[in-house]
Amino acid sequence: MRRTALLVSAALLTSLLPVAVARAAADDPPPVPVDRFEGEVPFASPPAGGIFTWGGDSDDPPALQLSTRGDAPEGDKVLAGTYDISGYGGFTHDFAFAEPAHDWSARKGVRFWWEGQNNGKKVAFELKDGGANGEAAELWTTSFTDDFTGWKQIELPFTDFAYRTDYQPVGGIDQVLGLTETWGYAVTLPVGAPGRFAMDGVELYGRADQSLRASVSTDSVVHPVREGGTAKIKVTVATTGSAPLGDPVTVAYETSGGTATPGKDYTPASGTLTFPAGTASGATRTVQVPTLKDKGAESAETIPLKLTVTGAKPPAETPQIVIDAHGLPYLNSKLPVQRRVADLLSRMSLAEKAGQMTQAERGAVGGGADVTAYDLGSLLSGGGSTPTPNTPEAWAKMIDSFQLRSRATRFQIPLIYGVDAVHGHNNLVGATVMPHNIGLGATRNPQLVQRTGAVTAAEVRATGVPWDFAPCLCVTRDERWGRSYESFGEDPALVESMETIIQGLQGARNGNDLDRDDKVLATAKHFVGDGGTAYGSSTTGTYTIDQGVTTVTRQQLEAVHLAPFEEAVQRGVGTVMPSYSSLDVVGDGLGPVKMHARADMIDGVLKQKLGFDGFVISDWNGIDQIPGDYASDVRTSVNAGVDMIMAPYAYKDFHSALMAEVRAGRVSEQRIDDAVSRILTQKFRLGLFEKPYADTSGASKIGSAGHRAVAREAAAASQVLLKNAGDVLPLRKSQKVYVAGSNADDIGNQSGGWTVTWQGSSGAITPGTTILEAMRKNSTALTYSKDASAPLSGYDVGVVVVGETPYAEGVGDVGNGHDLALSAADQAAVDKVCAAMKCAVLIVSGRPQIVGDRLGDIDALVASWLPGTEGDGVADVLYGKRPFTGRLPVTWPRSQAQLPINVGDPAYDPQFPYGWGLTTLTKVPKGGQSTLKALGAAASRAERAGADGTGRALVAEARLIVQQRAAGRMTAAVAAPFADADHLLLTGRYGEAVAKLTQAYRAA
């Protein structure tokens, strides 16, 4: 998210022609040109000086050009552009990092010509101030409204710029707009509709005086204090350039207004603070306001501290002292949660209840004033929505600042902050990134998967986040789906077995561990059927399958898609998220209905039939996809059983619409009370009322060796050895190894989507070990050539690491710019290396890739999935430090035309069946069919005795025998019973599993 504010040096441009039009006061100095757009500054990216674009995805950056215009306000050319932005987008002018920043502190502001389109949209303009360069400075922002037609000169005084609390490249240097080291400007364009713009003649204007150069701030906007305590508010004066005050600054203060009663709740305070001329920038004075103790129980009460500033810019907000709520039953941690919920609910207004049901994106609430104004119950970080620097400390500080705002509400109900930590705390740079779920499904190791969940929970909670939008319990039935890697596999029995991750995240099933500093609230998603959408059924943008329609019989729904959620409810999962997709149950007469609107499933099945007692959180703007107007969307979703609505940027609209629906009688107060009770219950269980702020005691373990060891083990266990002709694997340390391929040395590619940003990206995006780096540790002679262009002679074996680049959700759908074929470059690398030497091909991807006819030329083939940051785990199995034990969580097709193909299909002839996975470092039992017969009898006895461990071990022995015989001779007659056996194994039918394996053995 390169929302940087960067600028060209004024010193560099003082030789340029002056702007023709200047509306300067008589005593103002001449304007200083900044950007004339005559071609003097190129289109370029940091660290070079120039203009560059940016955006939330590939479609969001605007198209720019320097256009010759007869009506140009200055010179012959203007900067013109077009845009169509869905997320965010704009452009920046960056001053080269190799040159010094420039000093604007003597000027009143910046101005430029803008060609208005009269669209009524706001355009944000940002400055970058201080720091080492344009990528390490503070962002300061203001905006203007395009409510005019034709050219207009926009003047932006520096006093109008506010410090950006939602995004900072370094999280703030001193939070003072010094202007002595200005690095650039950026323009953020409107979203939601196509548009065009033109801009010309950026320049500095006017002369700064002290009221523009000095500002007054307080240490916090909200100052909670226990009843009877004394609030202490620090008042600070700062100047641009950090120069001493040239003239005195006075701050008159007075306690005035609020809900607290002077003389009864606090001792009124008033007076004047003086900062004399010559006072150093950063000087602080303290105002003290004593509160008074009485014997009554009360809700929180506010005392605004009115500040009147002379000689400097006043604070943006009036600071408030808050006397904490006290003595009320809901605050008593010794009472049962149910009683605390009932007490608090009985005191709340409709507006407060609606606030608890509202979740906003942290980037939408700015400094957080709306947390208080709308009694918001929750905030989230969407994929890539992070503080900067993206460090554990910055996360905790950011979330605490939002939580502080909730202390100014009447009942001080804490926020619950959520993130998509779907394979580790993946938004956080430096976190331990686990294999994606598809790889975890390949491990077939519930205990290991639980440990990955525990590591994730510990790292997430240590940054102040108590809620994780994971795990995804979708059952992927068509790998053309861009979310298929978020699934544990195609078999509901496999998905259920992996739900130990819920205990890793939450701890005990009864929720008693949720208040620990290493546990988080989990979310089972996406209810229900998002893995079964039909190809071509999506109506979302250019998506082909994601958010489409799942058409099933009632029996198929319950057996395939609903079963994992039943297991999650039994495991005590705290929240459930509905799917964007539509569900069409054959024979129910409803046709396709968006899941956010299906009361029969959310309220009827999930809550009533399955007994789910947590709360239901919508997906990102999920209710907007329900047919009808917004009021109807709100009414339908809430009545369907959705308890909290994720309305990232429309939270105000949702809040008001919900209250209107209740007042009109279209949503009952009983439904509202049920929703809020569920939300409050989880907040009490999490211990947020007692400890609302971040507990960072575990922060030192984020990305630690111990945590990475778990991820390394998971990465190793996720590797599936599909072919191993001539025992090419494991490699020996002494072998001369030739490594090639696009994914050998790319931490971003091996981590996949949902890593640091929503879509993920290639490159060194977070600390970790690439597969190549890990292999170097194990080899005495290794050569790397990404495109296999280096000489190929003289090597014992080649390893070609190929596969996909990152994507997420419908962006990755096949047919939406993606397919399952290897790229031309990857195909060429495989062909070159495998023609020259024995070769092993590793496929790093979120789903099977079509190998086709190349399989005969490949000696060893490994499905590496998306192993995360710990490439050492991949090297561990390549070099025999650990055995290959992974098994396919999904069927590997021969061609894309076979999709969808799944275990149990009547026509089943894949390249590799579900459950396939060769094993190294393990002896295969001898005796063939006679041994299988004995294993089958023993497995049946173990099944009857409930000896699950023994039963699984016996089936594993049988699998080894069959795989040894069937390797290289895969037919439909072998594949179908082999895949069926793996499903039977997961459902505890050990005798039947061996019988199926025996059938496969005979067919081979």
Automatic annotation (TrEMBL):
Its EC number is 3.2.1.21. Keywords: Calcium, Glycosidase, Hydrolase, Repeat, Signal. Residues 1-24 form the signal peptide. GO terms for biological process: cell communication; cellulose catabolic process. It catalyses: Hydrolysis of terminal, non-reducing beta-D-glucosyl residues with release of beta-D-glucose. Residues 203-308 form the Calx-beta domain. Gene3D superfamilies: 2.60.40.2030, Galactose-binding lectin (2.60.120.430), Glycoside hydrolase family 3 C-terminal domain (3.40.50.1700), Glycoside hydrolase, family 3, N-terminal domain (3.20.20.300). Belongs to the glycosyl hydrolase 3 family. This is beta-glucosidase. It comes from Streptomyces griseorubiginosus.
